Amino acid sequence: MPIVKNYTCEPRKNIVFNSIDCFEDSPVYEYATEVFESLKDNLNEFLDLSMIYTNVEIAKEIEFHIPKCYNKLCLCFVTLGTKVLDKIQEYFEEDSYFEGMLLDSICDDILFQYSNKLAQHIKELAENNNQGVSKKISPGDDQYPMEYNKFIIDNLIEKEKLDINIGYTESYMIYPVKSLAFIYAQGDNIKSEKDHNCALCKNTDCKFREEKICH
């Protein structure tokens, strides 16, 4: 079921600037701030947000990673669409490399925020039905294979008759590029697991870290 057109997110300047190593003592900081504010004000022109989920039975190709206390899967997909990719490419073709790089980082931050919005939506629905959900299962992270992207997208296309163009490559990379696919397992009368914890995350080079690493 396609959902969620009423959520709004704004890019977080501190997160975005950290991702491109632009700090207050940088000689381009003031210029970067001007560009950031301009891009933020016009961001909706470039975004074609879709947040989609569907519920399916636990299939054999994925059950290895699903504890037996769960009996359903919620497959999720968030995309910013293709227009913003065209805009980024346009900046690079015009030699406006800084603008293109900054818009790219803004999109990464926005995509991360919207994926969290959808995750919260899924958890609230589950709790209203006396269900608990697992930690987020993200293809390519930890022990989860990239092939799970295929499982998610194939089921979404088959069940939801989507009017947007999503898919995956031969190596199971998803498109449009500014998209995320993930899974939550659901079970009756159990407590939800805590989701991602930046402080414990093993990706020490992540530019979008929200908390310091806990040693």
TrEMBL record:
<dbReference type="InterPro" id="IPR037010">
    <property type="entry name" value="VitB12-dep_Met_synth_activ_sf"/>
</dbReference>
<protein>
    <recommendedName>
        <fullName>Vitamin B12 dependent methionine synthase, activation domain</fullName>
    </recommendedName>
</protein>
<dbReference type="GO" id="GO:0008705">
    <property type="term" value="F:methionine synthase activity"/>
</dbReference>
